[in-house]
Amino acid sequence: xxxxxxxxxxxxxxxxxxxxxxxxxxxxxxxxxxxxxxxxxxxxxxxxxxxxxxxxxxxxxxxxxxxxxxxxxxxxxxxxxxxxxxxxxxxxxxxxxxxxxxxxxxxxxxxxxxxxxxxxxxxxxxxxxxxxxxxxxxxxxxxxxxxxxxxxxxxxxxxxxxxxxxxxxxxxxxxxxxxxxxxxxxxxxxxxxxxxxxxxxxxxxxxxxxxxxxxxxxxxxxxxxxxxxxxxxxxxxxxxxxxxxxxxxxxxxxxxxxxxxxxxxxxxxxxxxxxxxxxxxxxxxxxxxxxxxxxxxxxxxxxxxxxxxxxxxxxxxxxxxxxxxxxxxxxxxxxxxxxxxxxxxxxxxxxxxxxxxxxxxxxxxxxxxxxxxxxxxxxxxxxxxxxxxxxxxxxxxxxxxxxxxxxxxxxxxxxxxxxxxxxxxxxxxxxxxxxxxxxxxxxxxxxx
Length: 448
Ligand code: UD1
Ligand code: CA
Fold this sequence. Notes:
The protein contains 10 helices and 36 strands.
């Protein structure tokens, strides 16, 4: 095993009581997926050979969510952050590379920052690298004490710090990279003789210095190391995540009229020259091709939108809404599990579910695919170039042929052939002068 090998330890044994939730804190979603999975994905970019997650209560929830993507080690009882890291020993006792210690509730740390810490550890020959930051408000964070040559001397917990130490503005994020050849020996030397009666991970710095090892600091942006302990901090982290996503898409050639009102998912894919109006929400699994306009107030999830298409305002695309090229979906249209082929138009007030709409077909306002009988779902198939008149109910399963026309107001219960006219409504009749007679009679009754 070489020094360049990497192992990850993620602490997640804390109870997270401030979330007031039955769901484990690190499983609360950020950008549409559990915060822990953000961290795991970032970490995977560094190809670690080992990943160990330290858990306490709700172990089963974490196991189910992690689904074999990392080892799970139990810390019971929780005697502090140093004790927590020690729980990874069984998995890492022969590991001599770099061990990067992360926190499940600090999910926004970037790959670049992790890499920088690892590099300092390897090139700079530091045995312990601590990630520091300078927040606007230093609150109760641990403080990093540097010596004259800028090396890290020790970390003082806020509770244990004197006034001079509390005045230090360089804070401890908690994240640390330690050489695998030293970590567990350092942890074995910890005691809990402090204000919290806990085994502090932070004390490894002082112990390492006493052993003649080197300790260094890497400084991070405060947004990268923000911890999530409450719903309010979760919302703040979501804002950080969204702002990053908005910037990424704008840099890649997407116009956002009002960036702060557009919400992306971690996996949203958007092409170039796409324009997105205000108040648009993207759920999971969305792909938008080039040259698409998404007008204001659309809710889109699990959908593919082909190039040149226009969606909204006020449209809802639900899972498996698959729009081809140059499709038009207008206001108050909902589409679910349907293939809308190139150039088809569904411009107003329609529900299209479990359907195929052929290329170039025109779906009139108020058209509904009646796809469900309370037990099963059925398919509606609309042919290429078909014209569906306004206020049509297509009672599935039903098929309208290529080039067929359905008269407005029809309730269609059986198939219509290619190029046919399908109309199902009472025949229009006219009685001349009926209204004149009606008005005369009614007025006479009223006047009595
Ligand atoms: C810790 C640091 C502090 C730093 C701060 C950043 C220590 C002693 N102090 O303080 O310097 O400024 O983080 O937020 O490390 N955990 C376990 N098992 C335990 C205890 C904690 O897994 O026995 C996990 C928690 O789930 C949490 C993280 O470790 O995610 C931090 O623990 P917490 O008790 O919140 O430490 P702080 O007091 O915030
Ligand atoms: Ca904390």
